[in-house]
Amino acid sequence: MEISTATWTVGKQRLTTAAGSVVGNRYRDNYDVLHLDDTRPLAVVADGMGDGPGSRAAGRTAVEVFVRQAVAAHGAGALRAAVAAVQQAVREAGRGLPGLTGCTLTAFVGDPAADDSSAWLVQLGDSRAYRLRDGLLELLTVDHTAAWLGLLNGWFTPESPEGRAARYRLTRYAGHPDVPEPDLLNVGLRPGDLFLLCTDGISDQVSYERLAELLAAATNLAAAVEALLGDSLLIGDDNATAALVRVG
């Protein structure tokens, strides 16, 4: 598997990154899309919905448009505008294609010219962003799915037929006809922080305990990404994408 790496600066912090993606055992093609910028602090993961031409078009379009828009996207308003452009582009890309054209979008966006050491997380769908800080692995994003709502409100259990079916019903995604806005989270960057952006091929197929173990032991980010992707192939069969960002 091919692992990409980069080094960035945000405020006074130096960030090192590594990322990769694998097809998995279910599909012939990879409907995940990964972008790790080599010049600015920007990492993006997207996961196409389904395995048809709409899935492929959505992921590629969403990432291409977001990366282009993110050049000048500093602050919450600019990031919302970037995702609005993504929504429009994905909707247009889906015209005439059979089936659903949609995908998730999760991004880590830093401003290299910022005075403070912080970054934005952009969330649309059920890909995820985690942070390991002081030995605690936390999920920083919310899954935009009917399953997330149902579990929080006690409508069903995760292993019930209703819970399993609701896992695949996204309430927000790129290409949604109602053009929903993303969640935006501004996070401080402390030396030692380790962020993980991943599609559900990682979060659904690699347990929380295993994620915490691999990230806590990650002295080499490229090797850690290889281990995450390798575990996804052993445990599950979905496309899997992971990007790690270390501060300090």
Cα-atom radius of gyration = 17 Å
Shape descriptor: globular
- Number of DSSP-assigned strands: 11
CATH arch. level architecture = 4-Layer Sandwich
**Count of all domains:** 1
Spatial gap, N to C terminus: 27 Å
Strand content: 25-35%
Spans of 5+ residues with little confidence (pLDDT < 50)?
none
Instruction: Give the class from helix and strand content and strand pairing.
Output: alpha+beta
- Across the major sheet, the strand order is 1-2-11-10-7-8
The CATH class: Alpha Beta
Instruction: Give the fraction of residues assigned to helices.
Output: 25-40%
Number of helices: 7
Question: How is the biggest beta sheet arranged?
Answer: 6 strands, antiparallel
**Average pLDDT metric:** 94
CATH fold type: Phosphatase 2c, domain 1
Mind telling me the CATH superfamily name? Answer: PPM-type phosphatase domain
H/E series: EEEEHHEEEEHHEEHHHE
Summarize the structure.
The protein has 248 residues and is of the alpha+beta class. The protein has helices spanning 53-69, 76-93, 146-152, 161-166, 200-203, 208-216, 221-235; strands at residues 3-10, 13-22, 32-36, 42-47, 105-110, 118-124, 128-133, 136-139, 183-188, 194-198, 240-247.
